[in-house]
Amino acid sequence: MESVKQLKTYMEDNHFDLHELSNELNEWKNSLIIYNFALDEINTKLKILNEEFQFIHNHNPIEHIKSRIKDPRGIMQKLHRKGHALTIENAKKYIHDIAGVRITCSFISDIYEIYNIIEKQDDIKVLQVKDYLKNPKPNGYKSLHLIISIPVFLSTGMQEVCVEIQIRTIAMDFWASLEHKIYYKFDKDVPGHLLNELKEAADAAHELDVKMKKIKDRVDIFQTVGKHQTLI
Ligand code: GTP
Ligand code: MG
Fold it and tell me: Which end of the chain has fewer CB atoms within 10 angstroms, the N or the C?
């Protein structure tokens, strides 16, 4: 209750017009709907690939897929952080992760397989690739990040919409989700000993990725050569 009073006082002191503010928020929401459509387009593409791999091939590089839209508050915070005025035009121009998709795979090789498939699709333009597998972040973070654009067809015509795609293994995802929680628990100032332990955990996750791939390759050979051969 107290905070509502404070907010009212703040708004009166700063000549805020509640009606104008709510109109503006609605305008943001309406302008951002295009990102939902872009996610629908990319999710359909990934669903087709997932089902194709499931039914036709003997290995599916896609383990699971998650997608999300950044809320207007998060977009405004990021614009502010980057030093841009809080306008919808600036959001579309400077914030490339309003629509985000995360694809989790079993093996490192799956990451590049998915990348190659996405890159070959004629309607998708790859605008940026950040390979944190070849160049991990100092904290140990690994993932392949793509910024792509995808066409969305509206009644008024076609619009190219940016989507951020992150592709990583289950082990990388396990590490990143814990690291993310720790990062925010310590308000972005993680104690040194925990940073060291997180780096060690990232190395262990990488070892696991390598080991699992070796096992899988041996099983693949076993399947090709025949069940009567000894597994080397
Ligand atoms: P921002 O989106 O402003 O961070 O721009 P950027 O150029 O730093 O993008 P980058 O591709 O490095 O990171 C984009 C996203 O990747 C973040 O929003 C996170 O979801 C993820 N990410 C990047 N670095 C880390 C990290 O160190 N730990 C974790 N857990 N996630 C990360
Ligand atoms: Mg970042």
Answer: N
- Rounded Cα gap, residues 7 and 204, in angstroms: 48
- Please identify, by atom number, the ligand 1 atom nearest to the C-alpha of residue 82: 3
**Nearest-angstrom CA–CA distance, 196 and 225:** 44
**How many angstroms separate the alpha carbon of residue 89 from the centre of ligand 2?**
21
Does residue 162 have its Cβ closer than 6 Å to ligand 1? no
Strands 157-169 and 99-105, by their bridges, are parallel
C-alpha neighbours within 13 Å on the C-beta side of residue 103: 29
pLDDT at 1 > cutoff 60:
no
Q: How many Å lie between the centroid of ligand 2 and the Cα of residue 142?
A: 12
- Report CA 101 to chain centroid distance, whole Å: 4
Burial of 96 from C-beta contacts in 10 A (0-12 / 13-18 / 19+): middle
Q: Is 180 helix (H, G, I), strand (E, B) or coil?
A: helix
Place of tokens 């897929």: 65
Evaluate: CB of 179 within 6 angstroms of ligand 1: yes
* Ligand 2: centre distance to CA 45 (Å): 26
* 173 Cβ below 6 A of ligand 1: no
Asked if 202 and 141 count as a contact pair (C-beta separation under 8 A), the reply is yes
> Three-state DSSP class for 182?
helix
Which amino acid belongs to residue 99?
Answer: A
Strand order of the β-sheet with 144-154 is 64-69, 99-105, 157-169, 144-154, 125-131
- pLDDT tens track for 32-57: 999 999 999 999 999 999 999 988 88
